[in-house]
Amino acid sequence: MRAPVLTFTDHGIYCPAGDFYIDPWRPVSRALITHGHSDHARPGMGSYLATDAALPIIRHRLGEITAEGIPYGETRRIGGASVSFHPAGHIPGSAQIRVEVAGEVWVASGDYKVLPDGLSEAFEPVPCHSFITESTFGLPVFRWPDQTEVAREMTAWWAANAAAGLTTFLGAYSLGKAQRLLRMLEPIGPILTHGAVEASNAVLRAQGYDLLETLPVTPDLDVKAHPGALVLAPPSALGSQWARRFGKGSTGFASGWMRLRGVRRRRSVDRGFVVSDHADWDDLHQAIKATGAENIYVTHGYTDIFTRHLIDQGYNAQVVPTQFGETEEEPA
Amino acid sequence: MKRFSALFSAIDQSTKTTVKTKALAEFFATAPDEDKLWTIALFSGRRPKRAVTTTQLREWAAEVAGIPLWLLEESYPIVGDLAETIALILPEATQTSDHSLSHWINTLHALHDIPAEDRKAQILAAWDQLDPTERFLFNKLITGGFRIGVSRKLMTRALAQATGQDEAELAHKLMGDWTPATTTYASLIEADDPAAAQSRPYPFYLAHQLEDAPENLGAPSDWQAEWKWDGIRGQLIIRDEHHLWSRGEELITDRFPEFARARDFLPKGTVLDGEIVTWDGTAPMPFSTLQPRITRKTVPKKLLKEAPVILLAYDLLEHQGQDIRNQPLEQRRAALETLLDAMSSDAPVRASPAITFDSWENLKALRQTSREMRAEGLMLKRKASPYLAGRKKGDWWKWKLDPLTIDAVMIYAQQGHGRRANLFTDFTFAVWKGNELVPFTKAYSGLTDKEFAQITAWVRRNTQARFGPVRQVTPEHVFEIAFEGIQASPRHKSGIALRFPRMARWRQDKPVQEANTLDDLHAMLATYG
Ligand SMILES: [Zn+2]
Ligand SMILES: [Zn+2]
């Protein structure tokens, strides 16, 4: 029997025909990277290949690396394999990687979101025989509410806080989610940003992504000069010494996990906003169906339950153990 | 439901007590009486009589959502709440409605009188006209357990703010076995109803765990110590009739018929606070002998004989028909002793001894003997203290013995639910028997969120096998397991069962070989069982 197009090794997803890895978690000589999140783009690889749009962030995060960019949709020959990158809609620059060997097509999705967010390149279904999907939110309880409505609620909350003389603290992961919020919010006041958020902003703005105006929080920033401000920061910074200088406020958090009341309470935030960079239950199914694939490999999240459901639906599905979705920073 | 739903959201969306109290007070000032009464009932643990089973609810919800039942069942433990799970999986409602909270509760009550097959249609119709939050609340009305971050104390304070009544007075009015079917808002809150007052217990005064050294409490002469018994807290009321209340405000008179005789010994107008324990004639028996008495609603003769109970009384709240809670403990104690000392030795009530001591050193030594006394430690009470309502710091302290501990190896892990849905939090632990690891307990609390996140990443990488939701992991990590008691249990492979096991510490310094053995556990069983 012919070797499969992609195999699952303890270093990551491997293509024998092209001798490369996709999003490996241990050092390898050649890595194809779906996107810049730290559980997918790790340091120590001999060479990196990612979309032109993803590369600036990857370089910014990993420092001196040997890397090459590729436009979406362009096919490149690597050994016996043809590879191309297609928008995954997860964060700016994110891609699904299509690998074809002797007419057989596999797609590794990385992380993806079907819903357009007005910032990331919109998700495109890629027909294939085998599809490696994520299942971060692979349960029927995860269904995303209308994002226009969420945006309206978020802005209304900010306005109410400002009227009550409170600072608005909005927690969001620094790459992807934070910038998406900078498209969703209505700029009713100054937006102050934590260094980690601003670093991503700067890289993306330089690439031409259009974000709301922000004011980086520096040690000498006069906080009192910006009443009614919204402070956008990674969740870990809220409730820390860093946040104290802003005085009394109301804290919100934007994540798919906010769909669950229990998780919202554990975070002990005042408001949870359901904004996710991952596909919800319905969209996972729709995306998988759109690929036309028969074989589904499931990574990230509620893999066991999601896989069982796919099998019920007639797919040839199985769980693949990976180290995706395991870092502190994994945005959801 | 919109007003109640807005109240819920205001409470749920804030972590600040002042905000919650204000939202509740506003609700109590403006909502219709019937809704107010039901809100008080729900927030004090009462609920509408259940008209449909949770099994039916699950089946109907899965059907409406178009998912197989097993998928709902798998999602439920992750969400941690059935009412919420159902609210989350249902498709969007096609209609809206503006009925009151009471309307929906009455709808649920009316289900009792219609044929079973018509109930489904009513529930589905309700789901189809409620928004997501209203649906969650509607489901909560059916499944019960309205714990949404409103303590009874907070609710009472808000009610006091809204009505201008005294908070302690209100707390007392809310005690007892009323339901919205047996009273009205006007008679419960606004009027004084002497009949209801007959069985009404006083709010229990609850102690905090002593964290500091006892020396910081001041002079030993200002304090009285008592054994902290391992039974259940109870309030015995002797008025025209007798009533026995548990701390959870459950009327448990019928479960403990022994106390009917208390009326022969004690005058009307007496209310005692104490510990219900099983009694061998001279000392309390282990807690495990009390357990069957707690769960049985009616008591067979044999059990009554094997596990007779008494009340070890430690406080007198009502004396000669007078509420004496404001008197200092010293005076209440004197009155209690006068009342009980005269009683015959076979009476079902005895005074729990007051321990006087001249130095904290001596008391520390005495505390070390608690287990021999079948006590969990000591209680410390300030002699000058009044009997307060609820958990108040300062005058009453629990000074429990340090828990027993054992070092064990983690061998299975399972994902948590609710607050910790995305973490591995439920672990099974084992001790050595030769070269074999024998599981002996589960534990799921005691670590910080950060530690749970760390162990979660580890579990994902070190899964050896999966059994449904349970993962077998490499035996590599040692945890110190703390527990309050140990007893023999033929049902368990290890032969023992622990009381209140939890993770006291993650022993990252300890290699697995140095975990304890099954022999160590059995030695503890011989000493403390
Ligand atoms: Zn990602
Ligand atoms: Zn990921």
UniProtKB/TrEMBL annotation, chain A:
InterPro entries: MBL, RibonucZ/Hydroxyglut_hydro, Xnuc_lig_assoc
Ribosomal protein in keyword set: no
Keywords associated with the record: Exonuclease, Hydrolase, Ligase, Nuclease
Gene3D superfamilies in the cross-refs: Ribonuclease Z/Hydroxyacylglutathione hydrolase-like
GO terms for MF: exonuclease activity; ligase activity; RNA endonuclease activity
Protein name: Putative exonuclease, DNA ligase-associated
TrEMBL record, chain B:
Coiled coil stretches, renumbered: none
EC number from the UniProt entry: 6.5.1.1
Domain of life of the organism encoding this protein: Bacteria
GO biological process: cell division; DNA recombination; DNA repair; DNA replication
Keyword Lipid metabolism assigned: no
Pfam families linked: DNA_ligase_A_C, DNA_ligase_A_M, DNA_ligase_A_N
CDD domains: Adenylation_DNA_ligase_Bac1, OBF_DNA_ligase_Arch_LigB
Keywords: ATP-binding, Cell cycle, Cell division, DNA damage, DNA recombination, DNA repair, DNA replication, Ligase, Magnesium, Metal-binding, Nucleotide-binding
Gene Ontology terms for molecular function: ATP binding; DNA binding; DNA ligase (ATP) activity; metal ion binding
Reaction(s) catalysed by this chain's protein: ATP + (deoxyribonucleotide)n-3'-hydroxyl + 5'-phospho-(deoxyribonucleotide)m = (deoxyribonucleotide)n+m + AMP + diphosphate
Domain ATP-dependent DNA ligase family profile: 302-433
PANTHER family the UniProt entry points to: DNA LIGASE 1/3 FAMILY MEMBER, DNA LIGASE-RELATED
NCBIfam families, per database record: DNA_lig_bact, PRK09247.1
Protein name: DNA ligase (ATP)
Organism of provenance: Tropicibacter naphthalenivorans
Lineage start: Bacteria, Pseudomonadati, Pseudomonadota, Alphaproteobacteria, Rhodobacterales
